[in-house]
Specification:
46% of the residues lie in helices and 24% in strands. The chain has 14 helices and 12 strands. The termini are far apart.
């Protein structure tokens, strides 16, 4: 029959006793109060106020509705207060997408403990994949991503460097010897990402610098490349954070300048203004020293 705004002129007249005073309290003109009060009476089908020489008084029906209308007013005020408080609170779920190999490196670091200490109501859920998820479609809230960002719908900030070098397993090196450049390694076995990631910079780089290289293994993830290299199946271009952390791998050469990129945290423009995402951005920007060994090694 009516919404909350329909009750405001009625409550203001009941409280102040005149449409003039009610108009001042509501920040509108007197005619607006009279019009809206008349519309409410027509919708209800009964008069709520009567005009007297000394001002307006509630009818018996208006008096009977007043306590319930006041209760609505209190509940709306409480709701508005809760909404304002929520807008300032940092809590809830934040879905963070990042490459799968980063997850154990993040969870073994003090990063999440520090985030929890600063924002106890904020909970991080990982969305792990080597493919880019679509933040604009709500597949995640924030991305920790390396590489070029060309999406105009995303905003972000730099949090580190992404360095890549070429590695091989220790047994592979003992059998075939070390290589100091991609030219020396062109005749060796290589481990590459498969056709599901044709635009990945490691794939494009190897095709450009060693188009005749023998590909011994293809895999659908960087983590798969790590495992294949540890199994002594060939050379692999890997993030230094992963390759240097593996005792069974030996860095052959690099970092490779053509593979160097920036690590960024990214989100959509609307989410960037929410308390949980804004606070997460601020926290990550202050934790670059903690992030450096996680992202770069």
């Amino acid at each position: 029959m009516f919404d909350w705004d329909d009750l405001r002129p009625f409550l203001a007249v009941a409280r102040h006793g005149s449409t003039t005073a009610a108009a001042r309290a509501l920040g509108v003109d007197q005619s607006t109060v009279q019009r809206r009060l008349g519309e409410l009476e027509r919708r209800i089908g009964q008069p709520l106020v009567q005009r007297h020489p000394s001002g307006y008084r509630l009818t018996w029906y208006g008096e009977s509705l007043l306590p319930m209308a006041q209760a609505v007013e209190r509940e709306v005020a409480a709701l508005e207060l809760r909404i304002r408080q929520s807008a300032r609170e940092v809590n809830g779920l934040l879905r963070l997408t990042c490459p799968e190999p980063l997850v154990p490196r993040i969870t073994r670091s003090p990063l999440l403990d520090r985030l929890q200490a600063r924002h106890p109501g904020l909970r991080v859920e990982f969305v792990t994949t080597d493919h880019y998820v679509d933040l604009t479609q709500g597949e995640a809230d924030v991305a920790l991503r390396s590489g070029d960002t060309v999406d105009p719908h995303l905003v972000g900030r730099k949090v580190g460097e992404s360095l890549w070098a070429v590695y091989a397993g220790r047994d592979y090196v003992r059998r075939h010897g070390e290589v100091a450049s991609v030219q020396e390694g062109a005749g060796r076995d290589w481990i590459m990402l498969d056709a599901s990631m044709p635009q990945h910079r490691a794939t494009q780089w190897l095709r450009q610098v060693a188009p005749e290289a023998h590909v011994a293994v293809t895999t659908g993830s960087v983590l798969g490349m790590v495992h294949s290299a540890k199994a002594n199946m060939g050379l692999a271009a890997l993030p230094t954070a992963l390759g240097d952390a593996e005792p069974d791998l030996v860095r052959q050469f690099g970092p490779v300048p053509e593979l160097t990129r920036i690590w960024r945290i990214l989100t959509t423009r609307p989410l960037r203004r929410t308390p949980r995402v804004a606070s997460f951005f601020e926290f990550m920007a202050q934790e670059t020293a903690t992030l450096r060994p996680i992202l770069t090694g």
